[in-house]
Design goal:
Helices cover about 55% and strands about 10% of the residues. By secondary structure, it is an alpha+beta fold. Among the domains are: about 120 residues, Arf Nucleotide-binding Site Opener,domain 2 (Arf Nucleotide-binding Site Opener, domain 2), CATH 1.10.1000; about 120 residues, PH-domain like, CATH 2.30.29. It has a nine-stranded antiparallel β-sheet, with helices on both faces. Bound molecules: 2-acetamido-2-deoxy-beta-D-glucopyranose (NAG) (4 copies). The site of one 2-acetamido-2-deoxy-beta-D-glucopyranose has 13 residues, from helix 11 and helix 14.
Length: about 450
């Protein structure tokens, strides 16, 4: 079991638990490749076409101007919101001028309003204020209820609070998710409801925790739709990406329903999901895009695949010792390499868990570094690559030797990779998960 989990811990965030090693290799990795391919491709198209979000036929001054206008608009919208809030408050007060009871009530409402304001500026402090003033009970259920109602709360702030990795916040997250009723909703309907209730934070680990909680709740409300929570989790991301593919005008290559179905082969613990189900989900997204609160144009696909670092490097082959130029992307504790920057499909994935990095001298190439397994010279590093015919196979490297174009880039890559390795986002989460899994009944 440990072996399974340690392999799974490698995953971007699509981790399939309690599956044997063969399924991980034959199912999980291709699915990941597909999702990754889509996500990166979409991101790339958006970057290529618009260099960010600004149309490319503008001069530098026009861009600046556009930036200013956008900023100004944001400020104005915020001002308007503030004014509206104040007007509402005053109207409320006028209405409530009256008996002492009403005055007390008014006092209380005022404090709640202040708590909300504080919450929107700093969620933790806001909650603390409400608790200290007896306006909220200090239990995860009550806090979850307060966030779920969300009256006057900024959804970004709700997302920040729910995303904290503090044990208590995680309990609130779970209580919050429990308040969502997903029974008899299809996955798209449930996602619509969930993603509208707060703004998902940008950080991979937070997204992972929240989507995991979502998937658990969905499966709890809808027994028998999916073989496992992980299937639900994987499909949720596939749907979020489908949303971007279908509705972002910068993505020209719109997937058909057949492609969507093909993309999701084998994700139900090795089996296929009913075509009818996938068809319905596809149609639902096609007819109406997902909305996210406080949409700033950076949709989830973008967030999901925002790399720590990317650039050209030379990589020494495992079996055949030749140097190949590859486009490397470091994200979520994995190194991906591509033949061209615009490729949809990575040539390889190197999960960084348990690896170390060191500088090395090479007689042929300058600025070299190496990924290796500490204390284990001959063990092959767990990684995968795509063969020319599209098959996904295990890699055959005991070390990965890489050469950077300049000493500065070498330093920077080493720094970033070290940071990625030491963050080791999945191991701890996995350990916690395992504990939980072994203490709760499977359904
Ligand atoms: C909510 O908070 C975020 C981040 O602080 C801010 O960018 C956004 O404008 C706020 N939304 C509203 C409606 O005030
Ligand atoms: C879905 O796509 C639309 C259009 O690109 C975008 O505005 C929205 O943020 C996307 N939703 C999610 C959850 O990514
Ligand atoms: C990674 O390290 C952990 C902790 O030492 C270990 O349990 C696990 O088996 C290792 N994974 C691999 C693939 O060596
Ligand atoms: C990996 O390389 C070794 C020797 O370099 C070779 O014997 C072995 O067959 C290779 N394995 C694969 C799966 O290619």
């Amino acid at each position: 079991m440990d072996e399974d989990d340690s392999y799974v811990a490698f995953a971007i965030r699509i981790r399939i638990f309690r599956v044997n090693f063969n399924i991980v290799l034959s199912v999980t990795l291709p699915v990941k490749l597909l999702l990754l391919r889509q996500g990166l491709y979409i991101r790339r198209m958006m970057l290529n076409d618009y260099g960010g979000k600004v149309p490319s036929d503008l001069t530098a001054e026009e861009r600046q101007e556009l930036e200013n206008i956008r900023r100004r608009k944001q400020e104005l919208l915020a001002d308007i919101q503030r004014l509206k809030d104040e007007i509402a408050e005053v109207a409320n007060e006028i209405e409530n001028l009256g008996s002492t009871e009403e005055r007390k009530n008014m006092q209380r409402n005022k404090q709640v309003a202040m708590g909300r304001k504080k919450f929107n500026m700093d969620p933790k402090k806001g909650i603390q204020f409400l608790i200290e003033n007896d306006l909220l009970k200090n239990t995860c259920e009550d806090i979850a209820q307060f966030l779920y109602k969300g009256e006057g709360l900024n959804k970004t702030a709700i997302g920040d609070y729910l995303g904290e990795r503090d044990e208590f916040n995680i309990q609130v997250l779970h209580a919050f998710v429990e308040l969502h009723e997903f029974t008899d909703l299809n996955l798209v309907q449930a996602l619509r409801q969930f993603l509208w209730s707060f703004r998902l934070p940008g950080e991979a680990q937070k997204i992972d925790r929240m989507m995991e909680a979502f998937a658990q709740r969905y499966c709890q409300c809808n027994h028998g739709v999916f073989q496992s929570t992980d299937t639900c989790y994987v499909l949720s991301f596939a749907i979020i990406m489908l949303n971007t593919s279908l509705h972002n005008p910068n993505v020209k290559d719109k997937p058909t329903v057949e492609r969507f179905i093909a993309m999701n082969r084998g994700i139900n613990d090795g089996g296929d999901l009913p075509e009818e189900l996938l068809r319905n989900l596809y149609e639902s997204i096609k007819n109406e895009p997902f909305k996210i609160p406080e949409d700033d144009g950076n949709d989830l696909t973008h967030t999901f695949f925002n790399p720590d670092r990317e650039g050209w490097l030379l990589k020494l082959g495992g079996r055949v010792k030749t140097w190949k130029r590859r486009w490397f992307i470091l994200t979520d504790n994995c190194l991906y390499y591509f033949e061209y920057t615009t490729d949809k499909e990575p040539r390889g994935i190197i999960p960084l868990e348990n690896l170390s990095i060191r500088e090395v001298e090479d007689s042929k190439k300058p600025n070299c570094f190496e990924l290796y397994i500490p204390d284990n010279k001959d063990q092959v590093i767990k990684a995968c690559k795509t063969e020319a015919d599209g098959r996904v196979v295990e890699g055959n490297h005991t070390v990965y030797r890489i050469s950077a174009p300049t000493p500065e880039e070498k330093e920077d890559w080493i720094k970033c990779i070290k940071a990625a390795i030491s963050r080791d986002p999945f191991y701890e989460m996995l350990a916690a998960r395992k504990k939980k899994v072994s203490s709760t009944k499977r359904h």
